[in-house]
Write a structure and sequence with these properties.
By secondary structure, this protein is of the alpha+beta class. Helix content is 26%, strand content 25%.
Length: 668
C-alpha cells in the first residue's frame, strides 16, 4: 500500500472477524526499539475516556477487542503484534489508530524497515505498508482501522509527531499529566490512564516492570524514559513461613510427579495439568491463547477427546474451547515431553480433522523452541479449502515463563489462583515432569565440537547448521528464563542486513562457526546499559559473557573509572575490565581485583587518547555434554548469563545520554 490509500478487509479475506496487525522495524546497532499504542476513537475523533488508550502498561481491553501481544524477534529486527477482535469493538468506536513511539530522545529516522502488516484470523497476510524516510519524529501513526457501514477498512497513514507519544495522545483527547521535574532534568509526561481492578492479563513481553525492592526505592530517582501508568498489579512478595518441623518434610502437591513412570504418563499428566490451570486461572489461560487469535471469553479445556478420522478415530492430547457471544473458538492440542519430537503424521491428521470440523487452530507443545523459517514439523495445508486452520507452536519454556511473570511480577488478583500457578510452575520445573524446555543440542553437537578441535570441520557441513539452529533455540530459552526472573523484556538482538532470509543468515553463521570455532549471541535486556553478549569458544571450551558501557559525555576519565569500580563493588574479583579507546584495537585492561585499589590504571598513558567506553567480561568453563545435566553445555550457558547479569549488569547505570551517543557512533 501507499501512504493515504485504503482497502476493505472483506475484499481481501472472509476471515476478518479478528485480525493481527504487526508493526516492524530493524536497527543498524541492534539496540533500536519502540513501543506500540492503540487508540479507540468515537465519531468526533477522540477517545471516549483515557481507558481507550492501550499501551505497554495497559495492554488488554476488558472486552477483548484489543490485545497487545508483545514483541517477536524477526530475521532482521523485531515486530510488535496486536490482536483485534473486530466483532467485540463497541458500536460507538468508529476508528482504531495504530501507532508507535520512541523514548529518551530517540527518533524513528534511526530505524530501518518501518512497516505495518495485517493478517486475518488464520494468519494469512493481507496487506503491507512501508514507511519511507521517517525523519526526526519520535511517534508515528502507522495506520488505522475504520468503519464504513457494516464493514471495516484499513488506511495507510504514516503521519509523524515530533512531540512524541504525549503529543499524539493529547491530539486524540487523552489527559496528560506532567511529573514535577527534578533539578537539571526534563519533566516526563505521565499518562493518566486508570486500569480497572479486573483488568485482564498483559501478553508476552508487554508487561509492567516489577516493583523495586525497598532499598532501591530509597535511592535517588532516575529520569523516567517514557510514559507510565500510575497503577500496577503486583503480587505480595513476603514469603510465608513453613509449618514443617524440618526441611525433609515435603509439601503436599496438587500435581504430583512421583507416579510418572514413562513418557506416555508424562504427556498425559502434563497436558491435563496445563489445560486445567488455563481454565481455572483466566488471566493465565488468556496469556497462553491470545497470541493464537483466541477471543476473550469463557474457556473450557478437555483431554483425550476422540474424533473421527477415516477408519480409526484420533485422540488429540487436548482441546481448548473459548465461547464468546455465542461463537466458539476451538484448538486441538498435541503434546510431547522429555525431549520427544513432534510427529508430522500426527500433526497432519489433526490439521485435517480441524479443517473438516471448522476448528480454528492446532497447537503443538514440546520441549523445542520454534524458529522463524525452520518449522518443527512439515505439514501440508490445502489452500483450496474455504476454512483454513492455523498451526501454532508453544514450548514448555514459554509456558513456564508466562506462569513466572504472573506469579512474581504481575499477580492474578486471587490467592487460590496464585497457588494453582505456583503448583503448576513447581510441576513444570520438577526433574521428572519432562517439561524442562529445550534440553538437547542434538546429535550433531559432539561431532561438530570434535571437528573444530581436530580442524576437520568444513564449511557447508550440514551438522554445523544443525548446531547453529540449536544454539538459537537455546538463546531464546535463556531470554525467556532471564525475562521471567526480571519481569522485563529480554530479546535476542540480531544484526542482520535488511531483508536477510533466516535460512541464509543461519548458513552464514554455520560457515563462521567452521572458520572461527565460536558461537555468538547478543541479548537486549530492558534497562541494561548495552547488549549482553555471550560467546562459546569450542576450541578453548570457554564461555565469555560481556557488556560494553559507553563513556559519559561529561566529566573526567579518572572520575569515570572510579565511579565504575565503585558500582562493581559486589562483582566477582575475576571480572575483566577493558577500556575502549578511539582508533585502537584495545586500551588498558585488568581484573577487578587488581583495579580496585588503583582505578587510574584503566586510563591510557597518552592523556589525549579519547575513551569511548568500557567492556566488562566474565569467563567460565563450558559444559561438554549436549544435554542440560549439571555438566552439560545448556546448563553452563544458562548459568553464565544468569551469573553475569546478577553480579555485574544489574549494578550498572543505563544513562540515556550514553546510550544515545553509542547509537549515533554505531550509525556513522
Amino acid at each position: 500500500m501507499t501512504m493515504g490509500s485504503n482497502v476493505s478487509l472483506t475484499a481481501l479475506s472472509e476471515n476478518v472477524g479478528s485480525a493481527i496487525v504487526s508493526l516492524g522495524w530493524s536497527s543498524p546497532t541492534g539496540e533500536g526499539d519502540a513501543d506500540v499504542s492503540v487508540l479507540l476513537l468515537d465519531g468526533n475523533g477522540k477517545v471516549r475516556s483515557d481507558t481507550d488508550f492501550y499501551f505497554y502498561n495497559n495492554p488488554v481491553a476488558a472486552d477483548g477487542s484489543v490485545q497487545l501481544l508483545g514483541k517477536e524477534p524477526t530475521g532482521d529486527g523485531s515486530e510488535d503484534r496486536i490482536s483485534f477482535d473486530l466483532t467485540a469493538v463497541p458500536a460507538e468506536v468508529e476508528r482504531i489508530v495504530v501507532a508507535a513511539s520512541r523514548y529518551e530522545g530517540a527518533r524513528f529516522g534511526e530505524l530501518d524497515d518501518l512497516k505495518v502488516t495485517l493478517a486475518d484470523a488464520v494468519g494469512e497476510s493481507l496487506l503491507r505498508f512501508v514507511i519511507e524516510d521517517a525523519g526526526q519524529v519520535s511517534a508515528i501513526i502507522f495506520g488505522e482501522l475504520y468503519r464504513r457501514g457494516e464493514e471495516w477498512k484499513f488506511r495507510a497513514v504514516g503521519q509523524g509527531y515530533e512531540s512524541g507519544l504525549a503529543g499524539l495522545a493529547t491530539d486524540f483527547g487523552v489527559d496528560i499529566e506532567d511529573d514535577e521535574a527534578e533539578p537539571g532534568t526534563e519533566a516526563t509526561p505521565e499518562l493518566a490512564v486508570s486500569t480497572p481492578g479486573t483488568l485482564p492479563h498483559a501478553t508476552l513481553e508487554a508487561v509492567p516492570a516489577p516493583r523495586p525492592p525497598a532499598e532501591e526505592e530509597a535511592a535517588p530517582k532516575k529520569r523516567a524514559g517514557r510514559p507510565r501508568t500510575a497503577k500496577k498489579v503486583t503480587p505480595p512478595r513476603a514469603p510465608v513461613k513453613s509449618l514443617a518441623e524440618n526441611e525433609s518434610w515435603r509439601q503436599a502437591r496438587l500435581f504430583p510427579v512421583s507416579a510418572l513412570k514413562n513418557d506416555r504418563d508424562r504427556e498425559t499428566r502434563a497436558t491435563s495439568v496445563l489445560l486445567s490451570v488455563m481454565a481455572q486461572v483466566p488471566r493465565f489461560g488468556r496469556r497462553i491463547t491470545a497470541p493464537f487469535g483466541a477471543p476473550s471469553g469463557r474457556m473450557e479445556t478437555f483431554t483425550e477427546v476422540s474424533l473421527p478420522h477415516g477408519d480409526t478415530p484420533r485422540r488429540p492430547d487436548g482441546v481448548v474451547r473459548v465461547e464468546r457471544a455465542g461463537k466458539l473458538w476451538t484448538a486441538l492440542v498435541e503434546t510431547k515431553t522429555n525431549g520427544n519430537p513432534l510427529k508430522s503424521d500426527q500433526v497432519q491428521a489433526y490439521m485435517d480433522i480441524a479443517a473438516r470440523r471448522g476448528y480454528e487452530a492446532v497447537i503443538t507443545l514440546s520441549n523445542d523452541v520454534a524458529l522463524e523459517g525452520s518449522p518443527l514439523v512439515d505439514v501440508k495445508i490445502d489452500r483450496r479449502r474455504k476454512h483454513q486452520v492455523a498451526l501454532w507452536h508453544l514450548s514448555w519454556a514459554e509456558v513456564a515463563h508466562q506462569a513466572q511473570m504472573l506469579i512474581r511480577h504481575e499477580g492474578v488478583g486471587n490467592a487460590a489462583r496464585t497457588w494453582l500457578l505456583q503448583d503448576l510452575l513447581h510441576y513444570l520445573q520438577h526433574d521428572n515432569s519432562g517439561c524442562h524446555g529445550f534440553q538437547n543440542m542434538g546429535a550433531a553437537w559432539v561431532p561438530v565440537r570434535n571437528g573444530i578441535n581436530d580442524e576437520t570441520l568444513c564449511q557447508g557441513d550440514p551438522r554445523a547448521l544443525e548446531v547453529v539452529e540449536s544454539w538459537e533455540r537455546l538463546i531464546r530459552q535463556v531470554c525467556l528464563r532471564l525475562g521471567g526472573e526480571l519481569g522485563q523484556k529480554v530479546l535476542p538482538a540480531q544484526r542482520s542486513r535488511r531483508g536477510t532470509d533466516p535460512g541464509a543468515r543461519r548458513a552464514r553463521l554455520a560457515d563462521q562457526l567452521c572458520l572461527e570455532g565460536r558461537l555468538y549471541a547478543e541479548l537486549r535486556v530492558e534497562g541494561a546499559p548495552g547488549l549482553l553478549t555471550i560467546s562459546a569458544d569450542l576450541r578453548t571450551a570457554k564461555l565469555r559473557t560481556s557488556v560494553e558501557i559507553p563513556a559519559p559525555e561529561q566529566g573526567y576519565p579518572l572520575t569515570w573509572a572510579k565511579r565504575l569500580i565503585r558500582r562493581l563493588a559486589e562483582a566477582p574479583a575475576d571480572l575483566h575490565v577493558e577500556t575502549l579507546v578511539e582508533g585502537e584495537a584495545g586500551g588498558p585492561r585488568g581484573t577487578l581485583e587488581r583495579l580496585r585499589p588503583e582505578p587510574g590504571d584503566l586510563l591510557p598513558k597518552d592523556s589525549s587518547t579519547r575513551i569511548t567506553g568500557f567492556r566488562l567480561s566474565l569467563f567460565k568453563g563450558m559444559g561438554s555434554g549436549r544435554g542440560s545435566a549439571e555438566s552439560g553445555f545448556i546448563r553452563s550457558v544458562d548459568d553464565a548469563v544468569h551469573r553475569f547479569h546478577t553480579s555485574v549488569v544489574a549494578h550498572l547505570d543505563a544513562p540515556a545520554s550514553g546510550r544515545t551517543a553509542a547509537k549515533e557512533r554505531a550509525t556513522v
